[in-house]
Amino acid sequence: MTELTTLTAVIIDDEAPARSLLREYLSAHPDVSIAAECANGYEAVKAAGELKPDLLLLDIQMPKLDGFEVLDLIGRDAANVIFTTAYDEYALRAFNVHAVDYLLKPFSAERLAESLVLARVRIRNREPVPVRELVATYREGSGLDRLLIRDRSNVHVIPVDQIDYIEAQDDYVSIRAAGRSYLKEQTLGELEQHLATKGFLRIHRRYILNVSRLARIELSQKDSRTAILKDNTELPISRSGYAKLRDLL
Amino acid sequence: MHPIFVDRRLLGFYLLGYLPVGALLIIGLGQHEAWGTAVVFFLPLTVVYAFIGLSAYYLCLAFPISGDFRPWRSIPAQMSAAATVGGLSVGIAWLWGALLQSLNIGLRTDLYLSQVWLMFVVGALLFWLAIAVHYILIASIASHRAERRALESGLLAREAELKALRAQLDPHFLFNSLNSISSLTTGDPASARRMCLLLADFLRDTLRLGATERISVREEVSVAQRYLAIEQVRLGSRLAASCTVSEEAQIARVPALILQPLIENAVMHGIAHLLDGGTISIRADSDGACLRIVVSNPVDSDRPRSKGAGLGLALVRQRLQSQLGTDGQLHAREEQGSFIAEVLIPYETSVPSGAS
What we know:
heterodimer, A: CATH 2.40.50.1020, 5-stranded parallel β-sheet, 5-stranded antiparallel β-sheet, B: alpha+beta, 5-stranded mixed β-sheet, about 65% helix
């Protein structure tokens, strides 16, 4: 006899028929209880933060926030994810990180049951969810167009071209954009990769600069330079950062 | 080459077909005390006749039975060929008979050696038979080929239709619709059936209209409405549609499915990105010289720009260009949270405007 531990799931899909299909399929699994149903990414981020479910059944194409962005925002609270989508172009990337299952619409009840078996094993073994890898593989090659920041239950969407610079702060990064600062749980190295093609440069161990914001470079001491931004902010430039800047300009 | 040599089995059947001929010759021309002679004499001859008969194929090809078949031209040629074969048959029979005679094994081939006219008639008649058989063979090959051609051209046409469909239809639309149907099956079977029918009608329209050049705005709009009805099942209250077509515009002719990509765009890149959705409005009017169709929809100004965006517009532009040259235009713009696509083409109805 296997012990029945209840598993909480959140259904996230902007289409009502798709949600009701999942509800119907899940009704055959008494060990899975549906904690919430969300019709968009904002609701999903909120529900994931409040309910901390074991499992997300997540659509990818949704208004405002797509499935990967939802995952990105949920971050630490991320549960195991089963993607449900009619699009197969992300499937390979999702499988490459071995974190999730990927159901192509329309799918059968049996197919869902199979992925639930996988999910139960992962949940029982408390395997961590590699959200970062998932999101990173999704972004692969395309770069970032906007940054998403969760601030309690609020979600801020910051277009990349509004960002002045990003500063590393312990486990977080502080993003300076349009006169405000936002904290995001991410490493500077990751952001550097995503923003490399968008006109951003790592000028210092602790700073990424939007190069278009640069007004001038000043030599502050011997061998030590400072970037002066258009709004007169001063940022330190490391030696290797200066070499990269010089190559670029 | 003669088609019979292509397949060994065919050749086998052909030779088997000559067996009764040989039997007839033996029974009809054999003599009471000399059955053995008849068998030894006629059976090999029949085989020889069979192979000579194959040459009738080329004669039949030279005078094919087709629309302008002229018997008075083919019959003299065939008769002279039959006579030649008759003569040949006399010669072969004489040589064969003489050979058998010289073996001295008690065969009485002298019975046939004297009957020159008989051998002539047998050879000539068998050749006529071969001509008849070959006409049948040629006809059956031709009908086979025609059948295959018809099948092939049918397949090609279907393939072209499917290609057109693929170019115009986003496959995800189908997958999502099927998922909706799958979802409705248990809870709301009537809706599931309605959705199946809508989808079938829409697909049929898309296939049928892909082939024709121009249709009326009324037909075009009804295809679009069917598409929207299907998407409404999926998107629910998020998708609304309004349609205003002036009476004059109703009967105007447009390139088939010119509107469809614009509507698809409006749903996929417009409504689907809005939390609360919105209304897609279709307007068509005319000043008598120019037909104007406008599709507008609300958009999320900071939606992610996907690769697919603009593909539908490019498709419409390309079709307008190829069918109307510079007379057909598409203007697309985004202003104040709305996306507006405007098609301008010369006003034309199926009935020339001068006719009463």
